[in-house]
Amino acid sequence: MSSGPRHRRRNGTRIWRSYGPRHLNKLSENELLDLRFCDLRVQIEGTPLEERIDELYHELEAKGIGFRPHCWLSDEWFAADGVPGIAIPFYLAHPRLIRLERKQMLEVEGGTESWCMRILRHEAGHTIENAYRLRHLRSWRQTFGAASQPYPQYYSPKPYSRSFVLHLDSWYAQSHPVEDFAETFAVWLKPKSRWRSQYQGWPALKKLEYVDLLMQEISQEKPKVTSRERVDSVATLRTTLREHYEKKRYHYGLDHPNFYDHDLRRLFSDAREHVRSPSAAAFLRRLRPSLRREVARWTGEYQYTINEVLDGMIQRCRELKLRLHRPVDEVERDALVLVTVQTMNYLHEGRHRVAL
Fold this sequence. Notes:
This protein is mainly alpha-helical. The chain is 47% helix and 4% strand. It has helices at residues 29-33, 48-62, 95-105, 113-131, 138-144, 177-189, 195-198, 204-218, 241-251, 261-267, 280-299, 303-320, 328-348; strands spanning 70-74, 85-89, 154-155, 352-353. A two-stranded parallel sheet has the order 1-2.
């Protein structure tokens, strides 16, 4: 999630009480997908989002920060350059839209209270940086780097680096200096955060100490940017949900060729003596939900991307006519390892996508 180009961030599920426009509950999935954003008529007021935003304001107040970012609904999580406010994805404003998001993308980013608060703290870091134009401070640039660096389409994280805090998944602080600041701010802002002891001995501790001092300094200052602009609010978007999800799924899909054959032949068999054994394709399809969840938990990658990895494997198993030839529990274990390895290859070989 960024304050540069619009970026997106990330696990869980929550049962919400009934709220929001009732007309959405009466629509079929196809009818819902054909709606434009501006026709959804959703709002933050009266939803659990309102409570989350109030909680964020209380956290800022507890840290002595008087600034309050404004919030609005859009198509994704983001903070736009020069605007000290937070765009929140439309689907969090209605249970029907939450269900649609889960079906289309296999997960709901920010769908639990804790997950939502992690993202809000991150985005609040962007709004503070925008409101006080912190990127122009020499000390800020010396600590985090130049905000003028272009956002990469992909980045190669170093999972064991201690120069960055750990907050959102996928080592997101490593993607850009502006994200490094937002992630550091989020760790600092979290109530009861023990960042001094947690990051003792890490180079990242100096960044946290810098943020701590910087926030004390600006707490007595008025924001330099006070715009209340709502960039790409749902009321202004004419795109249909169908078009939105087609673009989103394409972005988080895979764009490299199949290269699973060697590993799949080690995991399964195409020998004639196993022709009556269960097919490898059916086996992986059955395991798909659990594999997807486990690999997402360990890698921080989007479940949609992992699902694409699995789709490629299942297709190759079908084309190679592979079948089980070992005990099921062994194959389940090895399949988990294989999918994890392939996902990590995707992450570390310069192929980890920066969010939308």
